[in-house]
Amino acid sequence: MKSTKLVKGSLQTIILKLLMENKRMYGYEICKCVSNLSEGDIEITEGALYPALHKLEAEGLLSVEIERIQNRSRKYYSLTQQGGVEVLYRIDALEQFLSSLNKVLNPKLI
Questions:
Q1: Rounded Cα distance, 98 and 93, in Å
Q2: 20: exposed, middle or buried (C-beta count within 10 Å: 0-12, 13-18, 19+)?
Q3: Engineered SS bond to 42: which of 15, 38, 83, 91, CB 3.0-4.6 Å?
Q4: 76 burial level (CB within 10 Å; 0-12, 13-18, 19+)
Q5: 29-76, pLDDT tens digit by residue?
Q6: pTM, entire model
Q7: How many angstroms separate the CA atoms of 57 and 29, rounded?
Q8: C-alpha span between 100 and 27 (Å, rounded)
């Protein structure tokens, strides 16, 4: 697949879903997890990831903890209570969109 334009529209939902499942992750870990789960079909760049993380944080959906790991600061992201509610809404909206898109692309299957 490897279409960054398609991924861009769902990146925030992907991030929220991973944090819902994993409780707490740092940026590089999110990128690797998406790549592993998609078997390399979806690659998230840092240039796309960090603006999405910062936007989610600004919206109050993520909280951030900074830890020192081997003399380096590492930001860990986790869902806020509001983020926990929002992730369910966004997953439902994305699933509904995919269902509608499938109807448009494969009308003979309906």
A1: 9
A2: middle
A3: 38
A4: middle
A5: 999 999 999 998 888 988 899 999 999 999 999 999 999 988 899 999
A6: 0.86
A7: 17
A8: 31
